[in-house]
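Re: the 323-residue chain
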Amino acid sequence: MHNRKRILVTGGAGFLGSHLCRKLLDNGADVLCLDNFFTGSRDNVVDLLSDPHFELMRHDVTFPLYVEVDEIYNMACPASPIHYQHDPVQTTKTSVHGAINMLGLAKRTGAKILQASTSEVYGDPQVHPQKEDYWGHVNPIGPRSCYDEGKRCAETLFFDYYRQHQLKVKVARIFNTYGPNMHPNDGRVVSNFIMQALRGESITIYGDGSQTRSFCYVEDLVEGLVKLMNSNNDVTGPINLGNPNEFTIRQLAELVIQMTGSPSRLEFRPLPTDDPLQRQPDISLAQNTLDWEPQIPLSKGLEKTIDYFRQCISDAQEIEVIS
């Protein structure tokens, strides 16, 4: 009846979702982009609105959706601590009710469905690097639990639907990702450091800066998501997607200062509750199963991201002058 895949991307106007929509359109799909615009932005996809194979719909995944699709990428959920802690009950609902509603849609339509899970399911890990068979070290009642436990419950639901209803499911555990279309004020470390450096403000480091993260450029991450969705039905995951090259937070701050030519200095503050000290994916499963690994080094990805945030600041200043 139709030659193009009909693909639903929930959270499609967000940071990751907007890049994914572009990739899917480039691959020849009809894309339905769903977003309630809590953290997503119409600006992220405004250039796609003229594409006859792209549709933007305002909708909240905590409510049922009735559409006809072949594949579903469930990306909807605030992903930065500032945003997911703003309304923690709604964050949990988005992860849990959203998963139930999208799984129900997949069951009715026979669609293949991918869950954008997170490295946060590992909590503050006691195993390093983190492999998919590690069950995690998570505080179930802390300020980050709405996100951590919401995503863990979503994974549970996906595998229960897989076992009980034979749904075609995929679960990706996404590690720190950065790039254009990040929200300038989302509180994530890359956007924080770049915005502070470009404004000449002090770079805020929580703790002593020795905690580590692994940063994956968004184009690499999206490539991994699409490869996972297109893999054989017996490849369910969970599967880590991220960059295994580990950097300390202090190293990142110093690199951003160097690349922006900023006069910013480092300012140290107490470490937030439950903030993990180490975060590094073991991606051997993705390498062996999907033939995937990141290609873009941190310096090259940061260069593109810095250019994006420079433009954001420039646009904001122009609006201020006009108003």
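The first strand starts at residue 6 and ends at 10.
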